[in-house]
Please model this.
Amino acid sequence: MDYTVIIPAYNASAYIAETLDSILAQEDHPQKIIVIDDGSTDTTAEIVQRYKHPVHYLYQENGGQGLARKTAIESSNTEWIALCDSDDLWNKDHIKKRINLLTAFPDADFTFSDCYSFGENADVTHTLLSEAPEGWLDKWSKKSLGHLIQINEPYAAFLEFNPAYLSGILFRRSAYDKVGGFKEKYSRWMAEDSEFVRRFIAQENICAIYDTDCTWGYRRHPDNYSSVEWKNYYGKAKILQEHLSVGVVPDPLIKMTEANIVMSLGEAFDIAYWKRDSNAAQKIFKELPLQAKTPKRLMRALHSVFF
Model:
């Protein structure tokens, strides 16, 4: 398969070599691996430049991961683009299984796979799919071939649960170009990666295929941006609000999206409160729609002032 791997890296010296080694060990070798250095101040450049073809090093002034991915993708010319973060790992058969997926589903535009957790903060029994609401996969399965699942109504499915983390994604370049790719506007937004995924799968007649086998590892460590749980819910709400405002959300899903925004803001507030993050709790409470400002949450907002 003709594919390029895109890796944004910012001060990634602790893990980037391990990540590159896992990609170079693929049973089906990539044509090109682009590491885009997003203004690192550590030894990231020195480490990456030790590697030869197919690893290519690019540098940009710090502009955020979204812009870094955009820059790197625009310098590629392959039919398929695979994403990987600078601290995650691919299994040796990650791409081989993706080739098998595309053989089974040749019309696929957007593919992704389940992952396991590893690292000092990891529960080694955890997988991303284990976080899905009960019955989610059966509810949104359009067609299945063993562990390969075509997702029905991807935007609606992902409102309930997002199983596509960037290090497990491979997509068709023509569909990426059609949707406008990563946008600099969102590069520093909370959950900017989720914005891209949701906008991509909102395209009409998009074919999204999920490999429920774990083919890569998500590293959990103290610097994970996603380790602050309320930010995930808050970021999701802000992205969905943006998608409503710019017309990304399909018309039949507007009410479902509006309800999801209210739910996500409420979850963000509750988590910030229980984590005793006073500033976050008060900020989010001000943004809660009236119907979400229950008496219990009002009491919590008042109590959070005294944290």
Summary: The CA atoms of residues 114 and 130 lie 9 Å apart. The longest strand covers residues 208-219.
